[in-house]
Amino acid sequence: MTLSPARDSDRPRLLVVRNDKLGDFMLAWPALACLKAADPAPHVSVLVPAYTAPLARQCPWIDEVLLDPGEAAGREGRHALLTNLRAGRFDALLTLFSTPRIGWLGWRAGIPLRLAPATKWAQVFYNRRVTQRRSRSEKPEYRYNLELAEALLDELALTPPAPPEPPYWPLPAGTRDAQRARLIDELGLEASTPWVFLHPGSGGSAVNLSLDQYARLVGAVESHLAAGTRPSWVLTAGPGEEAAADRLRDRLAEASLTAYRMPARGGIDDFALSLSAADLFIAGSTGPLHIAGALDRPTAGFYPSRRSATPLRWQTCNAPAHRLAFCPPEGAGERDMSSIDLDAAASLIAERLPPLPTRETTP
User: Fold this and answer.
1) Residue 158 exposure: Cα atoms within 13 Å on the Cβ side
2) Is the alpha carbon torsion for 53, 56, 57, 62 positive or negative?
3) 36 — phi, psi (to 5°)?
4) Is residue 102 within 8 Å of 19, Cβ to Cβ?
5) What keywords does the record list, in alphabetical order (predicted)?
């Protein structure tokens, strides 16, 4: 889309870029919330791929969405994007994940303030850089993003807000209740039982538990629960992951455990809103886990232990009391998910279920 050239001199125009995977984009929402809460509140545009654009349009901290055609767009696509960036008359560019293509476009578009992490040779296109050393994984990814947002506000001499708090995706009143009513109608779920959503897919980007491990986890959670507190299990799936979810449902049925697969949704934004109905969301370190985190739903994440993918680095951005994280123990292979103690994980998950509220989280 082409931005309007009209300007409000009291509202700086910012362009924020996070044009990679879904989980990475969701972990940018705290930074977007920080920018939007500054005084005066800036006009915030984002550059995202078509895949995450529907979610960007749901974000309350975003005023305008531009589509990034990607590396393969060709000369015509790059020229069209450059035209849009120039028409946007942006005061500042904040690139949360720096690439030479985006740095070059920001420079060619004449954006006067261009800020990015001081990594890789792409930093030559930026006139403000922040050293972070993310490869050390010393902080959560969303904290690194917040640092960049705060640095940009400082450069623009905007009054910074108080640190934002979850939920970073606050929903309008009644949204969670409507999503729960929808699933009751579709699946016949009991409103009085805890609803545990489980996402067995990985999107091809993260090491995850196997279907057999997830089946054992479900059985172990149920074994740790008191009589009468059996949850409703809902299996979620992204595009191309439906067959895996169905296989897990069949394995659970063989163990006399009932699970339901969430019906197909109308798009990634519709799917994301459905996750607000969960009392607990279980998954590997995938995009859906981070959607649930942004909604401040309780989460249980399963992570590898390699340095670039630790539970700390890819921590969900929900409240600390709503987070559980599991990974291989020290001394195990960094991708050896079979070494995770599933019974211990199930015990902790079960502890979170009985008193979980069913009311929605509101800002």
Assistant:
1) 27
2) negative
3) -70, -25
4) yes
5) Glycosyltransferase, Transferase
Q: What is the CA radius of gyration of the chain?
A: 21
pLDDT in tens, 252-270: 999 999 999 999 999 999 9
Q: What is the enclosing helix (H) or strand (E) of 44?
A: strand 43-48
Confidence of residue 278 (pLDDT cuts 50, 70, 90): very high
Say yes or no: domain 175-352 is CATH 3.40.50.2000: yes
Distance of CA 193 to the CA centre of its chain: 26
Q: What is the pLDDT of residues 193-216, one digit of tens each?
A: 999 999 999 876 668 999 999 999
Structure tokens of 144? 């690194």
Give whole-number Cα distances, 181 to 128, 177, 186, 363, in Å: 49, 6, 9, 21
Q: Does domain 13-155 have CATH number 3.30.413.10?
A: no
Q: What number is the average pLDDT over the span 234-250?
A: 96
Confidence of residue 30 (pLDDT cuts 50, 70, 90): very high
Other C-beta atoms lying within 10 Å of the C-beta of residue 255: 11
Domain ranges of the chain: 13-155, 175-352
Task: Name the amino acid, one letter, at 156.
Answer: L
DSSP 245-286: HHHHHHHHHHTT--EEEPPP-SSHHHHHHHGGG-SEEEEESS
Q: What is the pLDDT of residues 296-346, one digit of tens each?
A: 999 999 999 877 788 999 999 999 999 999 999 988 887 789 999 999 999
Let me know if the fold of 13-155 is the same as that of 175-352: yes
The amino acid sitting at 267 is G
Residues whose CB falls within 8 Å of the CB of residue 42, separated by 6 or more in sequence, listed in order: 11, 12, 13, 14, 35, 36, 91, 156, 158
